[in-house]
Amino acid sequence: MADAGGWRPPRPCEAYRAEWTLCRSAGHLLHHYYVHGERPACEQWRRDLASCREWEERRSAEAQRSLCESERARVQATQKHALVWTLRQSPPADWHLPLPQEEKDQ
Amino acid sequence: MAGAAGAPQQQQQQQQQQQRVACQVFPERRAQGGSGQGLLSSVFSNDQGCQRLLLKTLETNPYVKLLLDAMKHSGCAVNKERHFSCEDCNGNVSGGFDASTSQIVLCQNNIRNQAHMNRVVTHELVHAFDHCRAHVNWFTDVRHLACSEVRAANLSGDCSLVNEIFRLHFGLKRHHQTCVRDRAILSILAVRNISKEVAQKAVDEVFESCFNDQEPFGRIPHNKTYARYAHRDFQNRDRYYSNI
Fold it and tell me: In this complex, is the C-beta atom of B168 within 8 Å of any C-beta atom belonging to chain A?
């Protein structure tokens, strides 16, 4: 987490509002049920929006803590499963090379 | 792939078998020694239509714009002329990613309209993205192939409710996951000469991990709104990670 002096919410408050609105929409209910077989949970977006606004208005340390905790939990949820493959340190060497056909033409 | 860890001779035989299967998918590609088309065939081909649809996809589709951005960030900037090829294909395959040439093949005789082009390009760019960011053993590990196919089916819109209904596959509760499994298996069988059971086993083994690996979207993009939100998050990632 960055120092309190330079910290700001990880997302603009409008982004939290947009996610909360999307989460509560009928379309999202349908999509979520289609994928997971249950209703979506939208309460955390509402809490994050409230924290974001509170930090904007009052620079509340509690709001900062709450937002960081919430977003770290989201990141951890995406890292639950081990990857099937090894990540690269650099892109494939031949990505930008000309096609073999082009080399023959040259 | 089953048996790939055997003697080098066996492995070489299997690799030749895999390349032969790839030939069956794109025979014209191999026969002409590459992606080029003869002068006469290009006059009567759907190449211009394919190129037009492709250009519109690259310029306007939010799924594709995010993938292009993510690939550029990973060091694999995409060049339309170098990394895409419109060709005629056998069967009803819509496209493919050729890892040996780092090229996406679009089957111009099978891509029906703009929406279909959007989906095919998204699907193949997921493969290209995986190739760019990870050591994917496309030809020697069917689990790696299965993983990329699960991701592509999951993130490209292949398995949207609407598309499944058009295929007359009716299901609602958790049907998306069933579709992703089934389409991943079909895609594997289209490019590998293995049994359905082997393909199914590979998909089952990797499903949990690969279904939940939703990079670079960070979510399943059910429609363009989700894709735009995902792109917004991607563009915001520096601020995000430095403030949590």
Answer: no
- Condensed to tens digits (0 to 9), the pLDDT of residues B130-162 reads 999 999 999 999 999 999 999 999 999 999 999
Q: Is B31 on the interface with A (CB under 8 A)?
A: no
Which residues are CB-neighbours of B90 under 8 A, at least 6 positions away?
Answer: B24, B25, B26, B27
Report the half-sphere exposure of B104 (CA within 13 A, side-chain side): 25
Nearest-CB residue to B134 (from A8, A30, A85): A85
Residue of B nearest to A18 (CA): B229
The verdict on a CB contact (< 8 Å) between A82 and B209 is yes
Chain-centroid distance, C-alpha B121 = 7
Report the SS3 class of residue B140.
coil
Q: What is the ipTM of this complex?
A: 0.91
Among residues A13, A1, A23, A15, which one has the least CA distance to residue A69?
Answer: A1
Distance between CA atoms of residues B215 and B236, nearest Å: 15
